[in-house]
Design goal:
Low-confidence stretches: none
Number of helices: 17
Shape: globular
Structural class: alpha/beta
Number of domains: 2
Distance between the termini: 44 Å
Helix content: 25-40%
Number of strands: 20
CATH superfamily of the largest domain: P-loop containing nucleotide triphosphate hydrolases
CATH class of the largest domain: Alpha Beta
CATH architecture of the largest domain: 3-Layer(aba) Sandwich
Strand content: 15-25%
């Protein structure tokens, strides 16, 4: 049993945790939830020895302990799978998996690489990752890197494992495999601390859920009897709005039209159109072709056939730069950490980077005054919570990172926005704000938006028309969402028929 008693942690001007007491038991999957900034990460860092509490005590199996480092925590059978990818890119898969215990595989004369690779293969198989243990990590996808982190934690044989948003980078199949692994760990009497913003995932998987709000402990509920609204109310102090957002002023003219898009072995003459002022939803399982089609439209990938039209005129888009500068099309990536943002650059730089060519002075240099004005206006408009515009984006919460990712394309004055998985890894409060923002971009500013999401409720709430994808094809269209109030159940059933 892991017990936290009256834990408080104070940073300059901020009480990150305020007398938090929690108990995590062996053989139990215990979720920890709360908005960004609620104190979850701080609490996890105290459990793993990265931070030490200013007030309070930590007990492990009844014994008071004081961790001075993460290595201390690992030596007491505690490990963590971070949401942020924390691996060595120029090392092999096997080296990353056994990194904390490499001393166990060497003697005075040599390192037993054969045994290291055999050990790695065992845990790669456990997480369902079919790659060579000698493969270099830098060549892998984000999802594969996340699975390597999970394999690393499992290889430590820890009795307490903390999972921080473990499914945020995984496909539906990979997520289901991870859930099986977590349940197996529970059966082996491992204590699982599971941090997630996905409320339905928590209710389905976990035994208990505890909620933090503004650094304070709000309570613990049994997942067998808790509802989504119960959790939301604990997190934000009010119930979540599920009201229909209304009607958009959608024009007859097409803002964007794709005709007969073809990529040999992938897409075969796929066509769609986006009307001015419309939110068009792309729904389907991850890998169904939604993101891949979007990247063809913006010139990030090359197509073998087909045509793109913008505002009725044929477009020649050969790069993302073409799509932004010539046709005012912006793409908010689903992978904001590796594609959408430069994490170790300032908030201001990330926002203004799409405007530099436009705001150069006659000497070819970026006008600092214009840049400052653009950045300050966007931080205010997007309600980005950051100490200063010089703060590195990597230090912001997931929700605020996403606001920066969207804001840079608004700063570029894009008329067409492709927004891919806008609320992955953000809390329920930030999710509501992003939904409102997307709606206002279409409703008040007349932006034309393609919304790609695996969250059916998100798409039904925001989209006025939905394309359903399967096997790199558009297999169905759900229309009539702008002028008819239809129930969620009716629309979801219609979507489901195309995926059956």
């Amino acid at each position: 049993m892991l017990e936290l008693k009256n834990i408080s942690k104070i940073f300059p001007g901020v009480r990150a945790l305020d007398c938090v007491s929690l108990t995590f038991e062996s053989g139990e999957i215990h979720a920890l939830m709360g908005e960004n900034g609620a104190g979850k990460s701080t609490l996890m860092k105290i459990i793993t020895g990265i931070y030490q509490p200013d007030i309070g005590e930590v007990y492990l199996d009844g014994n008071k302990i004081e961790f001075k480092s993460f290595r201390d925590a690992v030596s007491h059978d505690i490990n963590m799978v971070n949401q942020e990818i924390q691996i060595i890119p120029d090392a092999t898969v096997a080296e990353n998996i056994i990194l904390d215990r490499i001393h166990q595989y060497k003697n005075r004369f040599y390192v037993n690489w054969k045994k290291i690779n055999e050990t790695a293969e065992k845990y790669l198989e456990m997480v369902g990752l079919k790659i060579s243990p000698t493969a270099r990590v830098e060549d892998l996808t984000t999802a594969q890197k996340q699975l390597i982190q999970i394999a690393k934690a499992l290889s430590s044989n820890a009795k307490y494992i903390l999972f921080d948003e473990p499914t945020s980078s995984l496909t539906a199949h990979e997520s289901q495999n991870l859930i099986k692994i977590i349940r197996k760990l529970k059966d082996q009497n491992t204590a699982i601390i599971f941090i997630s913003h996905k409320i339905e995932e928590v209710i389905e998987l976990c035994d208990k859920v505890s909620v933090l709000r503004d650094g304070k402990y709000m309570g613990t509920k049994n997942c067998k009897s808790v509802t989504r609204q119960d959790i939301v109310k604990m997190m934000i102090g009010r119930e979540e709005s599920t009201e229909n957002l209304g009607v958009l002023d959608i024009q007859k003219e097409y803002a964007l039209e794709a005709k007969n898009i073809t990529v040999y072995g992938q897409f075969d003459k796929v066509s769609f159109h986006l009307k001015k002022g419309e939110i068009l939803g792309f729904y389907g399982l991850i890998g169904a072709g939604r993101t891949e089609l979007a990247k063809l439209v913006i010139g990030d990938e090359k197509m073998d056939g087909g045509e793109i039209f913008v505002n009725g005129k044929k477009a020649n888009i050969h790069s993302i730069q073409d799509s932004v500068e010539k046709y005012k099309i912006g793409y908010v990536s689903e992978n904001r950490k590796e594609e959408g943002l430069i994490l170790d650059f300032a908030v201001g730089t990330n926002i203004s980077i799409t405007t530099w060519k436009r705001i150069r002075n006659r000497f070819g240099k970026v006008s600092l005054g214009k840049e400052r004005e653009i950045v300050n206006n966007m931080v205010s408009k997007m309600e980005i919570k950051t100490p200063t515009v010089k703060t590195k984006v990597e230090n912001l919460s997931g929700g605020n990172q996403q606001k920066v990712s969207i804001g840079k394309w608004l700063a570029a004055n894009c008329d067409i926005l492709i927004i891919d998985e806008p609320t992955v890894g953000v809390d329920v409060g930030a999710k509501a704000y992003i939904h409102e923002l997307i709606w206002k971009l279409a409703k008040d500013e007349g932006k034309s938006i393609i919304l790609i999401s695996s969250d059916m409720s998100e798409l039904i709430k925001l989209s006025r028309r939905i394309h359903v994808f399967r096997d790199q094809k558009i297999v169905g269209e759900i229309s009539g969402l702008n002028d008819t109030i239809r129930s969620y159940e009716e629309i979801s059933l219609e979507i489901g028929k195309y995926l059956a």
